[in-house]
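Before relying on records like the one below, remember that each one covers exactly one chain. Contacts with other chains, cofactors or solvent are not represented anywhere in the record.
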Amino acid sequence: MVRSLVGKHPNYYEAIIQVRDNEQEVEKFMKNLIDTKKLLVNKISKMKNGQDYFCADNDQARAMSKKLQQTFGGEIKTTSSLHTQIDGKDMYRVTFLFRQAPFKKGDEVEYDEEIWEVKSLIKDIFLKNKKSGKKVHIRYRNMSQVKKI
């Protein structure tokens, strides 16, 4: 469901959540989150490899993107651009790009030419070596080094 702020233009938005390379359950999760939490999403655009959610509230968009990462595991990149000035104050529009990890908790992956098990996908990727039991954590910005088997 699409909602907007009272007294604001119907197309007003402060932030965009770009959801890319995701599974269908991520879209269902976002729809449920918008409906149950009464989030201010003015527009949803279907893209070639995901969806864009135009949010009227920057703080809600930040919380939604964080919730996506905590639930599904993946990388979030945040960028901002100067939109306008109001009474001498710079106003920015923020974009949150969420890219889901191509593997899930419990999957076997290859990292550093060895076989690992994915133990957790929260703030970082936590792996446990299948042979030695050694544990490592990898930042999401380096998730391309981890390949699902």
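The first strand starts at residue 15 and ends at 20.
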